[in-house]
Write a structure and sequence with these properties.
The complex is a heterodimer of chains A (about 130) and B (about 350). With about 130 residues, chain A is an alpha+beta fold. Chain A has one helix at about 95-130, and strands at about 10-15, 20-25, 30-35, 35-40, 45-50, 55-60, 65-70, 70-75, 80-85, 85-90. Chain A contains one helix and ten strands, in the order ββββββββββα. The chains are: A alpha+beta (about 130), B alpha/beta (about 350). β5 of chain A pairs parallel with β10 (about 255-260) of chain B.
Chain lengths: ~130, ~350
Amino acid sequence: MKTKDGKNKIKIVVLTPEEKVYEGFVDFISVPALSGSLGILPKHVPIITKLKIGILKVVNDGQQTYIGVCRGHFEYFGMLARVLTERAIITEYDSRHETLEELRKKHDITQEITEETRKVLQAIAELKNLRS
Amino acid sequence: MEKSEDIRNRIKSISGTRKITKAMEMIASSKIRKAQKRIVEARDFIDGIEKVIMDIACFSGSIENPLLAEPENDNNVLVLGITADRGLCGGYNVNVIRLIEKTVKAFKDTGKDVKLEIIGARGKNYFRYAGYKIEKVYENLSDYPKFLDAREISKELMSRFLSGEVNRVIICYTKFKNPAEMTPVLRQLFPISIYGSDIYGSSVTGGDFAGFINRYGKKIAAVASSQDDGAQDMDRSKGVVQALIGDRVCSLRPEFIYDPSLHDVLGSMLPEYVYSVVYGILLESTASETGARMTAMKTASENAEEIIKDLNLMYHRARQQQITMEISEIVSGYDLFASAGGN
């Protein structure tokens, strides 16, 4: 996509169900894909990939931005990159590891809650069956 | 006529009620701004997922997944109704409950086995009282629905659909337009049908996925040609990209790379889509409830003010009448006394 100054840049949007975390024009994206880190430059082949918990890096005019993402999907097509993830946090280079830890912990808690809720619902259903 | 003291007591009690309704109106109006913002954010996410699914559908030719497959027989239908946990929100609950009841009856009339699940205490109370068998009730969701809640609910529905226990899942909820305008609607959740999934009234039809791709493709083509770098024009309905190479226009079929595979990507994206759709529905219901409460409380406050105005008038009349009566009693008493003294 051409910007006002005529440069070829990728438009990227990082979306979670709760908010739009990042939007802008960038020169390069590094994506934490399921099979490893993936670098995207303008005019890359269209790609859709699953994401793992990791750090997404975007570079614009030499300036780097780090965004922690927690699973989801990445699509690059027609100079537009879409990152659809459950949770995303903009972070600094030095605090990447803390962000990853935080995301992992939150993800584990979520999984635990899901598992616990499932068990509770099952128990309630069984109790109701017994009563009837 | 009522005594002035009684009227004063009534004014006091109505003023108290007005304070409560005014406070509720203010709380609702502050909540609705947040709710609207959350809807917009969630819509962006849902649009994003829809577009990615459409890209897969358009450029890979066809997509196959059990969640998209139309059932051979749809004898078992699950209706999920979304109501509020609390009242005092005008016709919100009544309207959506009426639609749920109508839908259940319409399916039963066509000989289908209908299972009912309810979100919200109001709906639960009504349907229990009316003698319906409710399979599952979710409560305390309407205040601040979270993505996790939506995931829980959709996971449960998805597992029932995939196991073949239910062949179709319909959600009845209130679609939010603005604080004063909301419509109870039906939406088919499973099998997933993106186009034509909002169904109004009692006729329930499956989605037209191919039709959606055609229409959606044309819409996207216009957006893409205006957004992209001029050399590309996409006609997603045909799955091709028009590219300008030198001075020749060529039709190319873009090859997507899928990581790990098309099947895996679609398999994880469709559930994600369902979670976000249910999350969006919960948010719309909450916003509708808050909007309805705000409007209802505004009307209640205005009515209270009107009553207080009338009662004030009555109070002053009664007070004046009492004073007049007292004066006339004193005067007649004095007259009596004077006439007795004169003798």
